Amino acid sequence: MKVIAAYLLAVLGGNTAPTAENLKDILASVGAESDDEKIELLLSQVKGKDITELIASGREKLASVPAGGGAVAVAASTGGAAAAPAAAESKKEEKVEEKEESDEEMGFSLFDD
């Protein structure tokens, strides 16, 4: 990821075709180690491609990836009536609030001189 980030920073900075040395310089500027194999792999995969098209393609691929949350809905719907009392119980627990200590109880106030 850091190699990709360095590549994107170089492109964002106006370098439309960053070299391995450019990426190594960016990584070195933040104290990150550079992996020559990963840099060369990335550069070979993006060579001659427009960065905006690559990002758009990546977004399309990520749109098809499940983001979780669906398993919770499925579990709740299959639980039927048994899930309802558990949900009501958790709401009761949330309503129980701990008494917050006020500034006066602590012996000072934020606005004291």
From TrEMBL:
Pfam families, from UniProt?
Ribosomal_60s
Residue ranges under compositional bias (Basic and acidic residues)?
89-98
Keyword field: Ribonucleoprotein, Ribosomal protein
Q: Where is the composition biased (Acidic residues)?
A: 99-113
Q: Name one GO molecular function term.
A: structural constituent of ribosome
Q: Which InterPro entries match?
A: P1/P2_N_sf, Ribosomal_P1/P2, Ribosomal_P2
**Which top-rank group of organisms is this from?**
Eukaryota
Gene3D superfamilies registered for this protein in UniProt: 1.10.10.1410
Q: Where is this region: Disordered?
A: 83-113
GO CC, alphabetical: ribonucleoprotein complex; ribosome
Q: Tell me the CDD domains matching this sequence.
A: Ribosomal_P2
- Describe its assembly: P1 and P2 exist as dimers at the large ribosomal subunit.
Provide the family line: Belongs to the eukaryotic ribosomal protein P1/P2 family.
**By its UniProt entry, which PANTHER family does this protein fall under?**
60S ACIDIC RIBOSOMAL PROTEIN FAMILY MEMBER (PTHR21141), LARGE RIBOSOMAL SUBUNIT PROTEIN P2 (PTHR21141:SF5)
Summarize the protein's role.
Plays an important role in the elongation step of protein synthesis.
Protein name (Swiss-Prot/TrEMBL): 60S acidic ribosomal protein P2
